[in-house]
Amino acid sequence: MRKQERKKRTSTQLDALLKYVIADLEKLDNQELRTFKAAILLEYLLVFILAKRLNVAEDDLPNLDYADLTTLALAGSAHEKLRAKILKVGEVRNYLGHYLDRDVWLSKVRELVSLFGLPVPTRDDQLLLVYDLALSDSYIQVFLAASRIASVDTTALEQLVSEKRRSEKAILELIVKGSPGKKGTPA
User: Fold this and answer.
1) What is the pLDDT of residue 77?
2) Contacts of 118 (CB under 8 A, 6+ apart)
């Protein structure tokens, strides 16, 4: 088995990784590029989680595709809903990478947004704003799972997440105000 070269990360570096990711994603104003970047950044965390769960070095893990890595890292009933969401992020990325038809990709974006229980606007510009929130939430949920597995105190992070979700709820209300779509269902 060929050893996979990976950047070494420890549990104390999760905070630095999160700050890097947030800064990196905030610079992107292109949802297509964000789709690829978010999936790559999720893979970093999934490798961290799987290595911690198996109590092995990240370099000792075999090279796994996104779906297998997600399934193994987030195995178990405690992560069932999160696993489905993160697998859908990978599916959205794959549709963007393999299909030239933007409407096909947007249909997968709608499925992802719906899976997160977010409103699904009919207008593409509004949909992509809500999609950004779903990507952000997916990363935060995986980061929290990684922090718990690494036995890192997540109290402060969970408070920030709670505040962020309150802000996002207000933003969502503004985005979809007047939109005929209902929560979790396409308009």
Assistant:
1) 92
2) 130, 133, 134, 172, 183, 184
